[in-house]
User: Fold this.
Amino acid sequence: MERDKALELLKAHVKNENMLRHCLASEAVMRALAARLGADPALWGLAGLLHDIDVELTAGDLARHTHEAARILKEQGLPEDLIEAVKLHNEAAHAGKKRSETFQKALAAGETVTGLITATALVYPDRKLSSVKASSVTKRMKDKRFAASVDRGIIMECETVGLKLDEFVELSLGAMREISADLGL
Assistant:
């Protein structure tokens, strides 16, 4: 699937601007991760872009979230490894099934870190990614009260794909900076 068609598909299912920005940020991070890890940036980017396609359809119900996404993506003829990565970014909905592939772990960690990076940018006076330092993001990892809904354990899955936290945050922040105008940051 071409990126333009994927974005059109996403916008047909997701109307919330903040969620669309999250998906764009996740796409950018996944493209950067793919390039760093020797994977296909187009495929990984699509996974990042489409991973939350059913969030409004399921009304954020974590028990249902990603089941509808899998159905939609299958109907579109997307590859099974992409569908599995999307499904398993929400392990809780898949009865004991665990992320085991690099693609799956990268998507979970990559889409999760976007929340911490965004929250960090929003506490800066200018609310810009250009002002954020990777060290500020990693420092906020330790403060569980800051962006409390961001699961630090999932972010730490970056280490299971061969990236230390500092490198992962730097790469993710850099990817998000490249599209900062689209993110409003």
